[in-house]
Design brief:
- The protein contains five helices and 15 strands.
- It is α+β, with helices and mostly antiparallel strands and 269 residues long.
- The chain has a single domain (7-258), classed as Creatine Amidinohydrolase, CATH 3.90.230.10.
């Protein structure tokens, strides 16, 4: 059952989404080779609590950390640990909060040092595909239009693998609400998008093939071929004419550009 949000509820959700954005901005300023992902998770948890919110991932279906930190061939749901980030790594940081009963949930992939050129391109294309999907997140379109836009740009145009087992989702007073939002699909199919729906749109795109597997911990999802994967995610409210993006990458991107230890990936011709 899809829950349509009122304008007031959307504004509460914007506050939650922007707290996630602020958390990711905080992390963007300290990412560098030698930092353990477990330390990043501790900082994320403290930052969220300092802003009178709750890390929504912690204890969600038994998940034991404040955030998901996925490095290189880990697609999503990576466990923070004592392993230190290295030059050339890419790291997806996915954060969720509950603020005033409403969820915010989004993710950003960072490049440490200078990854290989083909990995830089994967990061840039995946980020661009998120916005291709958001362009279709308006009344008059359907769920399949979002998935088609992402799949067409990443798989057809660039030959990447689009993960099928994991999808975006509705968002509200629960972290996962209807509808599911695949990153693949056919134009003109699926549920009609309605004004006031809030979706987490999150392309998960592999450099190699689309196949993935889940490790024995029950959470960590990796590419089967061991090639890198990239994950970006925005919280979006369906509106007429143009989607309302509740989360904000602007401050994250500014911190990314100011951090000399990070590489800003841009599209290559």
């Amino acid at each position: 059952m899809v829950k349509i949000k009122t304008d007031d509820q959307v504004e509460l959700m914007r506050k939650s989404a922007l707290l996630v954005s602020k958390t990711l901005t905080e992390i963007a300023g300290i990412l560098k080779p030698g930092v353990a992902t477990l330390r990043l998770d501790e900082i994320i948890g403290a930052f969220i609590r300092d802003h009178n919110a709750v890390p929504s991932f912690l204890n969600y279906n038994g998940y034991p950390f404040n955030s998901c930190i996925s490095v290189n061939d880990v697609v999503v749901h990576g466990f923070p640990n004592e392993s230190e980030l290295k030059d050339g790594d890419i790291v997806s940081i996915d954060v969720g909060v509950i603020l005033d009963k409403w969820h915010g949930d989004h993710a950003y992939t960072f490049a440490i040092g200078e990854p290989a050129p083909e990995v830089q391109q994967l990061v840039a294309v995946t980020k661009e595909s998120l916005y291709k999907g958001i362009e279709k997140a308006t009344t008059g379109h359907r769920i399949g239009d979002i998935g088609f836009a992402i799949q067409d740009y990443t798989e057809k145009a660039h030959g990447y693998g689009v993960v099928r087992e994991l999808v975006g989702h509705g968002l509200g007073q629960k972290m996962h609400e209807d509808p599911q939002v695949p990153n693949y699909g056919k134009r003109g199919t699926g549920m009609k998008l309605q004004n006031g729906m809030v979706l987490a749109i999150e392309p998960m795109i592999n450099l190699g093939k689309k196949e993935v597997f889940t490790e024995s911990d029950g959470w960590t999802v990796r590419t089967k071929d061991g090639k890198p994967s990239v994950h970006f995610e925005h919280d979006v409210c369906i509106r007429q004419g143009k989607a309302d993006v509740l989360s904000n990458y602007a401050a994250i991107e500014e911190a990314e550009q100011k951090n000399p230890e990070l590489f800003v990936c841009t599209l290559k011709a």
